[in-house]
Automatic annotation (TrEMBL):
Homodimer. It comes from Suillus subaureus. Transmembrane segments: none annotated. Belongs to the nitrate reductase family. Mo-molybdopterin binds at C96. Nitrate reductase is a key enzyme involved in the first step of nitrate assimilation in plants, fungi and bacteria. This is Nitrate reductase.
Length: 404
């Protein structure tokens, strides 16, 4: 029995932690088969406590208070948000900072790979429009703090953004009530949440109740005690004991770093190698496939595959399904405009492939992938280990074992 056992959950979601809170994701193969848009019931879930129980009647009365260093404090119902601001839909890939953390512990545990990335269409209003409306007080206001409605042992979940980013529409931050054209699922923040494209999932506050414009960043417990990349020298015990590491603003994680994964072949997948040439003398080939993403609106500009442990690299082919969504427009006020037309930023994962002939594959004992983004940041050979095991983006490897 858990406090939120009333929530309907798909059995394809694999639990990553104990029974409660609910933390889960689909297996990589299942996730990858869905392609660019992950259905809500297979989208990974990261909760820190019980899901607030909100029925549809309560959702109509749900309010979001916007207050603090503003000229005009306002409390919005969902309907007021929908009626007062342009409604937009953006394709956004959410990724948890704890993504690929299991690899950091792989020597001790081999539970497989925890990923925690998923793509969806998110509908809402721009946070920038709402901020324009409440008019932050110039020179005093520096941060926008978001607070969720979940009750955690150390108070509600909350975090913040720099006001300069939050007021920039190009950053794409949304107050969102729909995912893939349907009201949010309870696990994903019903009735309303924040969506922060290009940043770690932890910044996208669910069950949004309050927005405060402030001169300092969020003081919420998890804003400090989570989502940090502490220096590698700081061991977990030391991190727990010495508060100052957490309060150092330089270690906060905001934007995602560039990352890529091999999904085909999956770990533990069986490959059947056939080196016999067909009547034209051609040997069959295998399409290695996967996805990649970067943060901060930066596009992945190259994906490279190595079949010889990183000695040599070959370019993979990349597709950006996000670009197809730039053409679509909805008139319906629920969906809003699919707003990617003018955008030159990228908020979604892309999909790469690399064709390799069976005879080459037969001589490999590992496949590796690495990606680069348009800021020329790229994945490194070595892992940057740190106490929280977040933002792990060393070269992604799949080992190949031979059975005859
Ligand atoms: N918002 C609230 N109110 N409570 C939470 O526990 N978890 C955060 C973020 N927003 C969380 C939250 C984390 S760590 C992540 S990665 C994303 O929500 C996950 O969003 P999802 O469950 O919709 O995938």
């Amino acid at each position: 029995e858990t406090p939120d056992n009333w929530v309907n959950r798909n059995p394809e979601l694999v639990r990553l932690t104990g029974k409660h809170p609910f933390n889960s994701e689909a297996r990589l193969g299942v996730l990858f088969a869905c392609g660019f848009l992950t259905p809500a019931h297979l989208h990974f879930v990261r909760n820190h406590g019980a899901v607030p129980q909100v029925n549809h009647k309560m959702s109509a009365n749900w309010t979001i208070r916007v207050h603090g260093l503003v000229e005009r404090e306002v409390t919005f119902t969902l309907q007021e948000l929908q009626e007062n601001f342009p409604v937009v839909t953006l394709p956004v890939t959410l990724v948890c900072a704890g993504n690929r953390r299991k690899e950091q512990n792989v020597v001790h545990k081999t539970l497989g790979f925890s990923w925690g990335a998923a793509g969806a269409l998110w509908t809402g209003v721009y946070l920038a429009d709402v901020l324009d409306h409440v008019r932050p007080i110039r020179r005093q206001a520096k941060y926008v703090i978001f607070e969720g409605g979940d009750n955690l042992p150390n108070g509600p979940y909350g975090t913040s953004q720099r006001l300069s980013w939050a007021s920039n529409k190009d950053k794409g931050m949304l107050i969102s009530w729909a995912m893939n054209g349907l009201p949010l699922e309870p696990d994903h923040g019903f009735p309303v949440r924040v969506i922060v494209p290009g940043q770690i999932g932890g910044r996208s506050v669910k069950w949004l109740r309050r927005i405060e414009i402030s001169d300092c960043e969020s003081q919420h417990h998890l804003h400090f005690w989570d989502n940090k990349m502490l220096p590698t020298q700081v061991m977990p015990d030391q991190a727990r004991a010495e508060k100052h590491w957490w309060y150092d603003p330089r270690y906060i994680i905001t934007e995602l770093n560039v990352n890529s994964v091999i999904a085909k072949p999956d770990h533990n997948e069986k490959l059947y190698i056939d080196k016999t040439p067909d009547e034209n003398g051609t040997i069959a080939s295998y399409l290695i496939r996967g996805y990649a993403y970067a943060g901060g609106g930066r596009r992945v500009t190259r994906v490279e595959v190595s079949l010889d442990h990183g000695e040599t690299w070959t370019l993979g082919n990349i597709e950006y399904p996000e670009d197809r969504f730039r053409e679509v427009r909805h008139q319906d006020s629920f969906y809003g405009t699919l707003d990617a037309t003018e955008r030159d930023t990228s908020f979604c994962w892309c999909f790469w492939s690399f064709d390799v002939s069976h005879d080459v594959l037969a001589s490999c004992d590992a496949l590796m992938v690495r990606a680069m983004d348009e800021g020329l940041a790229f994945q490194q050979r070595d892992m940057y280990w740190h106490a929280l095991g977040m933002m792990n983006n060393w070269w992604f490897r799949v080992a190949i074992h031979r059975t005859v």
